[in-house]
Design goal:
Elements lengths: L3 H19 L4 E6 L6 H9 L4 E8 L3 H9 L6 E6 L4 H5 L4 E4 L15 H18 L4 E4 L4 H15 L7 E3 L2 H15 L10 E3 L6 E3 L12 H12 L1 H6 L2 H5 L20 H19 L4 E8 L7 E9 L2 E5 L7 H26 L1
Parallel strand pairs: 1-2, 1-4, 2-3, 4-5, 5-6
Antiparallel strand pairs: 7-8, 9-10, 10-11
The protein binds 1,4-dihydronicotinamide adenine dinucleotide.
Length: 355
Amino acid sequence: PPNLQMVEEDSGLERVNCRAKGASSGFKVAILGAAGGIGQPLAMLMKMNPLVSVLHLYDVVNAPGVTADISHMDTSAVVRGFLGQQQLEDALIGMDLVIIPAGVPRKPGMTRDDLFNINAGIVKTICEAIARCCPKAIVNIISNPVNSTVPIAAEVFKKAGVFDPKRVLGVTMLDVVRANTFVAEIMGLDPREVDVPVVGGHAGVTILPLLSQVKPSCSFTQKEIDYLTDRIQNGGTEVVEPLARILRIDYFADPIDVAKAGAGSATLSMAYAAVKFADACLRALRGDAAVVHCAYVASEVTELPFFASKVRLGRNGVEEIYPLGPLNEYERAGLEKAKKELAGSIQKGVSFVRK
Ligand code: NAI
């Protein structure tokens, strides 16, 4: 495969250097799986981020075309493409932030755990390379099942002697983004003003919205709580499967109109959520104060070794993990269910690397 760095340098070395200088104060970010459904819009949005000076786009297919396309955007980040495993290490050297949406997405009827067999191996290989090339980078893991891929990453880094629990973050921002949107819809609020903490993990019942802690303070009927909890937990399935099937109704003329029906899972809202989270990580790296978001991280908030809750981000990644706060009875019951499922997913990830 062509070495895209060479192609880029050959075709305009002076200009590339010039742009690199202009943007030298920013951060270096790599996206692994950059040619995929999430990867492409994520790459586009990161190219628009003024905090990014260098953007590395890596994939096992189609990286050259996506890189050429993104590189034409007139924003300051310098874009370089990397294709195939032999260029993985080049893609990673010197990176401050590595975002991983590599892997296969869900199809109708699949749970996130069904993706384990393929994605576990992909995340393991990528993390082995991160351990060799940029062990100090902040790592944002999007590949599902996040409940297991984050423990996999941690095990790989432990084996390599470079594990820093502050730097490995599972991206659960999409659950928060969905929760903010659905709560705003019901309460007639501007979604930008709504903040719903979503804790636990990133799959089914492990996604636990804490509706008693919504800001601005809202009071919901039990019917609204049931509706919102179910919709936030199954928001991904709304995209993966025809809505008609979820609602068990058959009056949609063409269910494909209302969902992807086998053509993939959430990509556009996910890219938005990933950028919101990555931007928060970069602002924290820059030294901004009070950068607080939910993320799935190594944690002592519960007896489980990994858990999603609000964390404060700083120059070293996760600086502080906040406790869950007061839960009502409904949320305490949800927490027990979530922990039971999470424990199995964590163990599965750990065993995959240790075996
Ligand atoms: P996709 O299939 O459209 O794209 C995945 C990309 O990864 C493809 O371009 C593929 O070539 C690439 N890839 C495969 N093996 C690779 C390897 N070894 N190294 C580098 N790249 C590799 O899938 P999509 O829709 O972009 O989803 C990606 C992942 O994100 C899936 O696992 C999906 O379940 C997950 N996801 C996570 C969410 C979250 O909230 N954390 C939300 C939505 C999806």
